[in-house]
Amino acid sequence: AQNKAKCKAVVSTQSTGGLFIKGWRVEVPLLTCFTFCVPATLSTLSLWRCGLNRETLEALLPLLTKVPVKTLALDDNPDCAGHFHILLTEECAISNLSLRGNGMTCEHLALFCAGLTHNKSIIKLSLHNNNIGDDGVITLAKSLRLNRTLLTLNLSHNHITDKGTKAIAEVLTALTLSHEEIVARRKLISESKVSTSADEPPTTPGGRAKERPGSNSRSGSHTALDKKGKGGASGKAGKKQDKIDKPSAKDGRKSENKGTKDDKRKGTTDSKSKSKSKGPAGKKYQEEKEQEPETVEFQNPLIEANLSETDGKIVVPGNYALTCVNLNSNKISNSGVTNLYKALHYQDNVTMRRGVKGLLRLTLKNNQLDISSKHYADLMEMMTRRDPFYEQPLLEEDNSNATTAT
After folding, report:
1. pTM, rounded to two decimals
2. Neighbours of 52 (CB within 10 A)
3. What is the pLDDT of residues 162-184, one digit of tens each?
4. Which residues, including other chains, have CB under 8 Å from residue 84's CB and lie 6 or more apart?
């Protein structure tokens, strides 16, 4: 009863869009009460330093499936560092997931990356201030080989060196399929062929489509009747039938008048509905509809049509869906910058032909690299051009020509 009173005090049942709990221990009974009291308008949930563990994450799942929470922040909860894969289910529609400061290591990230591989909802992922390291980034890069939903990735403060940076750079270019991926590709192709063949009609050994039984007899009976209809009683019956089938002019006019009346009624009802929608409720609905992100279905890269074969190996395009990567405050040197420059130079040449944008933003502040190096300068220049908010400077007119013209 006390927990329900607390929940009702915290949550407003009408217009609550976000719920933020900081430094308050959240346990299973409280979360079960939240599932009954949380409004349908809740879109943001933040539980910062609330002592969460595996049991509380499992108790949080019914709430996430009941209410379409888009933004979920579970920062500074180190006891559930290895259990965040529980949230990666098809029922949860989380698009923005923040897992900052949870002390996650490579071992903790293994199960999470296995679920992230085929996840279709998470667009933005923040792993800031963890202990992932190079091994964790390599594990994450394997999941990014097949994931085409994630757009923004924050890996700052994770002790990443040039080894982990190389793994990220390889994902952004072309990918050579492994043996397991080739087997999965063949399985997907065979399943698609079976589904298409099930939709098509059965064929004979000669290649012609099988006709349904009795179709020939029906067609023959129709031709016989047509022949009989040319003369005799059957022909007269056919003429009478034609006269019955033809509507009179008066009936036609009546039907047209009915149609115009129905159209007028529909027009009045449409105008009334439009006038109703113009009210404050209609405006709110239109604004919410405009704010909703467009759902895009991404093709499985294993069934990619633009593939090539080199030395008996199948090569498919890399991850061009990732648009923003944050690598601030790591241990990246000039070698890692060179790998990133080559990857983005490859994207600059390949994605422009296909009409795909690729990586648009990359930050490398507070790393062990030389800012005055050529590759770093070229990389930053390339990223400024790829930035969607970049405006090309206009050519300045020569002042001397302006003065002579005057």
Report:
1. 0.71
2. 24
3. 999 999 999 999 888 888 888 88
4. 57, 74, 99, 102, 104, 108, 112
